[in-house]
Structure formats: C-alpha cells, structure tokens
Amino acid sequence: MLRVNEIFYSIQGESTFAGLPCIFIRLTYCNLRCSYCDTEYAFHEGTDLTVEQIIAEIAQYNCKLVEVTGGEPLVQPECPELITSLHNSGYQVLLETGGSLPIANVDPRTHVIMDLKCPSSNMEKKNLYENISFLRQHDEIKFVIGSEEDYFWAKNLLTKYKISERCTVLFSCVFSKLTPVTLVNWILQDNLPVRFQLQMHKFIWHPEQKGV
C-alpha cells in the first residue's frame, strides 16, 4: 500500500524527456524542506492505494512513459516494488528523487533523475553523495541553482565527482529567483558540460497550478 497524492497525465516539463507526454504518479511525504519547494501540498495529503490499483488507474491513459515523483517517493518503502511492477507492465519509468535517500535498490531499468541540493535550498547537508556511484549513463543529476554561490558549488562538485563523465547533468534556475539568462551566461562562460533546462510546465500553465 502506498499513499498517493495525485496521478495525472501531462507534458514532461524537465529532464531530457522534456516535452514528451507522461503519466505522473506523485507519492505523498517528503523528508526534505527545500526553501524553494513548489509541492508542499504533497507533504501529507493523499489516498492509500495498492500497486495494482495504481497500475489500473494509469491504464486509462494511452501512454507508456511514467514518472514516479513526490514529495520524496523513496520515503515510502513500497516505492521500489511499484517501480518494478511498472516496468514489468511495459512502462518506461522515470524516478525523480531528492538525492537524500539510497537509490541502490531501485530497479536498474529505471531512469533516475536525482537532485543534488545546492546551498540555497537549505538542504545541502542531506545530500547522500554515495548515490553518485550507483548512477548509470542513462541517469541524470539535477542542480537547481538559486544564486552565484550555488553555481560555484555545483561547478566544484562536477569536478570533484566527475559527474558529467557518469551521466547527464541538468542545471536549472530556482523559479523567479535567478533569471535563466544569468545562468546560461555562466554556463557558456565556463563551457560547462551540462544541459540547461527550464521548468516547461510553469510556462505552459500558471506556475502554481497542480496536476500539470
């Protein structure tokens, strides 16, 4: 049994899958409290569903790309079982995780999109750097940049852990805090091997709209 905050069908707004139709399974609870969090409603609200009920609900959509997100989905111990069941049911599965909980037991077929929390998130000390060694070439690491301090911090981690040699690296702005052109200019100036991204859904719909 998992507590599910919402299930919806939309356009993937981030990652290398941005722009593709995707089913989102947002699980309830989070062990982090990031300063810029835009899904606080997922901290507690939700409905208890079995894995079978979740898969039956998403079957109504003619889509085989699914993202399991939160909150922090890995807070719920049944999350890896859900992910494996989704794979076995023929879905391509993305897992979006905050990077503070182990990913070692996640089904290797999964496309992991993992944050490393920058200083302005106030959650930097929660990063579980051991997770980096479990990432594969098809996975992605995301840095949400809110300041120049964040940028230099992320840049140093790229070198320290040779992250861009392991997987795709995503840089994005804290929405409404750092302008995209500022971050893009920093990336170009330093010729960083990263992919800049916008939260596409926040430009298509109102930035605070749920279920998109």
Number of strands: 9
* Low-pLDDT stretches: none
**How big is the Rg?**
16 Å
Mean pLDDT: 94
How is the biggest beta sheet arranged? 9 strands, mixed
Encode the helix/strand succession as letters: EEEHEHEEEHHEHEH
Q: Could you please say which CATH topology applies here?
A: TIM Barrel
Structural class: alpha/beta
**Number of helical segments?**
6
- What is the number of domains? 1
Strand content: 15-25%
**For this structure, what is the CATH homologous superfamily?**
Aldolase class I
Strand order of the largest sheet: 3-1-2-4-5-6-7-8-9
Fraction of residues in helices? 10-25%
* Bulk shape: globular
Task: Summarize the helices and strands and which ones pair or pack.
Layout: E1 2-11, E2 21-27, E3 47-49, H1 51-58, E4 65-69, H2 79-88, E5 92-97, E6 111-115, E7 140-145, H3 148-161, H4 163-166, E8 168-173, H5 180-190, E9 195-196, H6 201-204
Parallel strand pairs: 2-4, 4-5, 5-6, 6-7, 7-8, 8-9
Antiparallel strand pairs: 1-2, 1-3
Compact overview of the structure:
The chain is an alpha/beta fold and 212 residues long. Helices cover 24% and strands 24% of the residues. The mean pLDDT is 94.
Protein architecture, described:
The protein has 212 residues and is an alpha/beta fold. It has a single domain (2-204), classed as Alpha-Beta Barrel (TIM Barrel), CATH 3.20.20.70. Helices cover 24% and strands 24% of the residues. The protein has helices at 51-58, 79-88, 148-161, 163-166, 180-190, 201-204, and strands at 2-11, 21-27, 47-49, 65-69, 92-97, 111-115, 140-145, 168-173, 195-196. The protein has a nine-stranded mixed beta sheet with strand order 3-1-2-4-5-6-7-8-9. The longest helix is centred in the C-terminal third of the chain and has 14 residues, at 148-161. The two termini are 24 Å apart. The model has no long low-confidence stretch (mean pLDDT 94).
